[in-house]
């Protein structure tokens, strides 16, 4: 009898001891401690807004530098523009585009007048996108490209 009580007592004492130990370990692990500078920086980066409102007209310094180094690009030649932009549709006749090299395709188009073709090149017409879908092209570059396509189709603008 005495043994049974002793064993039970030992078990209860052990359970209490484990409980206290768990409380102490848990308490220490969760203790608040001040954040380190490195952690604060990481935290601020995580919660930073994706954009900022600028109230000045002055371009930010990085933009100024980028603008200076990206000096006005050389105008692209007609054949460059045709190769890089127009040929995507006009070499195979995608969506019914008049094919480069096909006089039959281009003759009725040119009959509208070069200026009208230029207007449709700049502003687009039906499935032909404005500026061939490349808004960075200047009017001069487009004119050179159109002239090039017409010449390659044995027509003179
Ligand atoms: C995304 C395809 C696509 C690209 C890129 C493209 N074109 Fe076209 N283009 C077309 C299609 C399609 C037509 C025929 C539109 C129609 O008549 O319905 C067309 C028609 C034209 C016409 C005839 C318009 C008319 O009035 O008959 C001209 C001129 C022309 N394109 C010039 C250009 C030039 C110059 C470029 C390059 C800067 C270019 N296109 C790039 C699809 C394209």
TrEMBL record:
Residues 73-153 form the Cytochrome c domain. The keyword Membrane applies. Keywords: Electron transport, Heme, Iron, Membrane, Metal-binding, Transmembrane, Transmembrane helix, Transport. Gene3D superfamilies: Cytochrome c-like domain. GO terms for molecular function: electron transfer activity; heme binding; iron ion binding. It holds the Pfam family Cytochrome_CBB3. The chain crosses the membrane at residues 6-29. InterPro entries: Cyt_c-like_dom, Cyt_c-like_dom_sf, Cyt_CIE. Residues 55-76 are annotated as: Disordered. This is Cytochrome c5 family protein. It comes from Candidatus Macondimonas diazotrophica.
């Amino acid at each position: 009898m005495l043994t049974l009580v002793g064993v039970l007592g030992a078990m209860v004492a052990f359970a209490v001891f484990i409980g206290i130990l768990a409380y102490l370990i848990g308490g220490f692990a969760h203790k608040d401690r001040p954040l380190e500078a490195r952690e604060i920086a990481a935290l601020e980066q995580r919660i930073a807004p994706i954009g900022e409102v600028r109230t000045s007209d002055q371009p930010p310094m990085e933009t100024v530098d980028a603008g200076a180094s990206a000096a006005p690009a050389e105008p692209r030649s007609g054949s460059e523009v045709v190769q890089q932009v127009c040929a995507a549709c006009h070499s195979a006749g995608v969506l019914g585009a008049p094919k480069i090299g096909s006089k039959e395709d281009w003759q009725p188009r040119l009959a509208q007048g070069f200026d009208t073709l230029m207007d449709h090149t700049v502003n687009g017409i039906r499935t032909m996108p404005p500026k061939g879908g490349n808004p960075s092209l200047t009017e001069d570059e487009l004119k050179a490209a159109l002239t090039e396509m017409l010449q390659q189709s044995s027509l003179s603008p």
